[in-house]
Amino acid sequence: KKKEEEEAAKSAAAQAAAERGEYLWTADDFDEIEEDETRLEEQLEAEREALVGRTDLTPVNEETFQAWWVKTRSDEAKAAEKARKSMLKKFKQTGRGISGRDLFTHDASLFVDDDAAVAEIEREDEDARAEDEALFDGEDLPDDEE
Predict the structure, then answer these.
(1) Do residues 26 and 33 make contact, with C-beta atoms less than 8 angstroms apart?
(2) What is the pLDDT of residue 135?
(3) Distance CA 70, CA 64 (A)
(4) Which of 4, 56, 95, 107 has a 20 to 30 Å separation from 21 between CA atoms?
(5) How far, in Å, CA of 122 to CA of 128, rounded?
(6) Quick check: helix, strand or coil at residue 54?
(7) pLDDT of 52-86, one tens digit each?
């Protein structure tokens, strides 16, 4: 609360000074900021100037960037396809099943929650309980604890 009160007092003082025509900043304050070398803009400009004249850099424009982007995506797709084919080849050679993680990586659509299946299992459990109760004909059965 004390900090909030101090900030409110400062704000009120600044408002009153502005109404009287007094300003918190002077032109000298802005000259100091413009020459501050720790500002991000100055740091970036200094880095750009350091790069001027270097011949070991590749010039980048929109066309070269797009070409690089397409090539990179193509290479990634080829690598993924190669890995998939390698996994399937290994599976065919060994005859062993692949792990669930590999199967999910290969085709995630195989792993879909089936609400209808859950409802069917619950219905089967209820039917089995009803059959058990009918067998014991009214005897008190303990509740299932899960």
Answers:
(1) no
(2) 73
(3) 10
(4) 4
(5) 10
(6) coil
(7) 888 888 888 999 999 999 999 999 999 989 988 88
Q: What is the CA radius of gyration of the chain?
A: 36
What is the value of pTM for the model shown? 0.35
On whether the CB atoms of residues 141 and 133 are closer than 8 A, the answer is yes
Burial class (CB in 10 A: 0-12, 13-18, 19+), 106: middle
Which residue is associated with the tokens 């070398």? 37
The pLDDT, as a whole number, for residue 74 is: 96
Instruction: Print burial letters for 19-41: b (CB count within 10 Å at least 16), e (below 16).
Output: eeeeeeeeeeeeeeeeeeeeeee
Task: List the one residue out of 88, 110, 108 whose CA is nearest residue 98.
Answer: 88
Q: What contacts 39, CB < 8 A, 6 or more positions away?
A: 33
The rounded distance, in Å, linking the Cα atoms of 78 and 97 is 24
